[in-house]
Amino acid sequence: MDKSVSQQQHKTEGLEDTMGGGGFVARSVQRLVDGAEKLNLKHSAVGNPPVFPTDDFPWAREVEAEWRLIRAELDKVLVRKGELPAFHEISSEVRSISSDQNWKTFFLCGYGIKSQEAIRQCPETWRILQKIPGLKSAMFSIFEPGKHLPPHRGPYNGVLRFHLGLIVPDAPDKVGIRIDDQTRHWREGEALIFDDAYEHEAWNHSDQVRVVLFVDFEKPTRFPANLTNKAVLNMAVFTPFIREGHKAHKAWEKLFYGEGQKHR
Fold it and tell me: Which of 93, 151, 183, 202 ranks highest by number of CB atoms within 10 Å?
């Protein structure tokens, strides 16, 4: 069921400037983003529910069918889990909602930037990700035991979020995600597709690690939103958020794949 436009208008404090920053140019960009969000809602080709049926996106079943290949590559990554960066160490804008070491990431791509080292390490995962039309970002998202991500919303409604359960503790009363007024639980090998422009929160109150493949993909829209949305998404690579994140990730990669390898 679609929700009213007003339920997607309020952005999480601390995240709303992701697409810009200070100054006239940033304010102009923000006006463009705000206008694009209204068009994305009005001209969505898939409606605007908080959570989508998986079968609305046929490619999702193809990804599910090969989940064990992704899991096998994840298992190798997790051998060095202690060396993986916390999300806020790469993407500073999430510090308002997460500043501890309990949300770790392994980044493959994001808004025009690719980690060639990660792709070499996880070639099957990268191959499978190419099944997703409009792929914008992809990473392994790792919640350590006890992690609770507070209510927030994403910075822009021109993408949808895809989660694929890879390691999920068998404790649905302790592990889950709320999107708007819907509470869902991940399952290994199953997809969850939702609109992160709605308020959402996620938690792992179990005593085991939870890992999902975390993907943003372009929201299917009709004219003229399809044009404005592509323009905004293509602009993202030039924002301070993406530039600074890329710089931080390259510094981490140098340690992980350089000096880090020497000490193994």
Answer: 202
